[in-house]
Target: diguanylate cyclase
Amino acid sequence: MKLVRQVLLTAILPLAAVLLAGVWLLISSVDKQEEQIQQEDELLQQIVRARVVTLLSRVDAASKILALNREAVLAVQDHNVNTLYELGRQYEPLQLSRIIYLDLQGRVLSRSDDRYRFGDDLSEQDEISQLLVDGVQAGDRVAGLFQQEDGFYYLIARPVLQYQEIPIGIVVSQVKVTPERLKQLVLGTGADIEIQIGGQRFSSFDETEGTRPETVRRVVPMGFGGRSAGLVVEEAQILLWPDRGIHSVDSLARQLLILFAVLLILLPILLMWILRRYLRPYAELVDELQQLSVGSVDLGVIRKTLGHDFRDAPEEVSRVAQAISGMAQTLERQMDELEHLAVTDQLTGLKNRRFLTASMQHAMARIYRHGGELSVLLIDLDQFKRINDRLGHSKGDEHLCSVAEAFRDNCRSSDIIARWGGEEFMLLCPDLDLKGASDLAEKLRKLVDGLRSDEVKAIDPLGSVGTLSIGAAQWLPGETAEQLLQRVDRALYRAKEGGRNRVEICAQARIAADLGGDH
Model:
């Protein structure tokens, strides 16, 4: 406990106090800063949205004025191109990019951007055709985003009204979507706006000036409420940049960094002195345990080392070493038991399916390297369920165990015998060809047929209760374990279909058919 108190008082407690104080200061500052930035962001978003609404309202108001202007009505009625041109030029300062007057057939009477361009037929353009389709009415109005020959425009098309009720022409008020127009919407806010229309993106920032979109601190989606004609704004967002309100947090972070640096210099000096004086035996103990963790020594060696080499160590180290030595001994014994249980069938004492599958892979790999042969027998106890149903499960278990014992006594020492599942067994026979495997299978079949008890035979004197149906196959180089098991399973199936108590082999002539059946 003395060592623990010294380490705790010298290193952990001061460092924890400093860390807690620093974290508290940093969290408080960050919370205040984030709250302030959030308020500024919300105000900025409201300003940008208000400017967009104001711009659209001004376009709508200018459109109404142009449609009801008495001088414009007379000029449209008389097709006075010069007067309409001058009127358009007068009203362009109302944040309009272009004003076009048309007659009721959709022919241009005047364009504010080109004095000498008139007579064009615009009746097929979307905004004009929507007005003309059912005849121009006094209350008609088309507003939205449309693509023109020279770019994208937000426009409002409405009838020019004589006596405020009789349509005599059409006026189209247009605002062109340009980076300059977007810059006006975010002027003085420190933010930018970006929209996408018709697959084309428009931004208020200029990447050629060094501004990169990937430095954006926050992206705020911007919606356009209501329904309108024309194109849809596919994407609109306000871009907030990271050059606002973070200086105080950076300053605090630098101060904490300096403080931690000082601690990192002083604390290791004190800790090194303590470690050299008190912890050398612990370091040796840790080295031993690390060797165990990486597998460079086994449990038996580490157990003997801990029990012998640390007898003269300090009491705490010696007690730990002795405890770990005892744990290693217990663990060594339990690992042996677990390893045996993991690969052994508890009823028959044979190896289990997991062990045989791994052994099959190892055998195939060995044949790949050194050559040789490998055969497999898949064995099923015929009508085993009838034994359980008629004589009870205990008698069924006895029959399983007697069959397993017969396998152990009559197979080679190199053969691997496993309970495959339920009443199925599998034999893995290294260095045995198909002929030898077939002979072994027939030997086992006859042996089990003869050792059946009278009780088992009495269940069906003329039947095959408790006998063996066996499928045999030889592994082919290049064949997977799954393919081999499928072939031997089909051979067993043929033995069952052929009347049970028989051996079926998967001969070379059948291999192509068996493999073909897998597809």
User: Anything to note?
Assistant: The first strand starts at residue 98 and ends at 102. The mean pLDDT is 81. The longest helix spans residues 2-68.
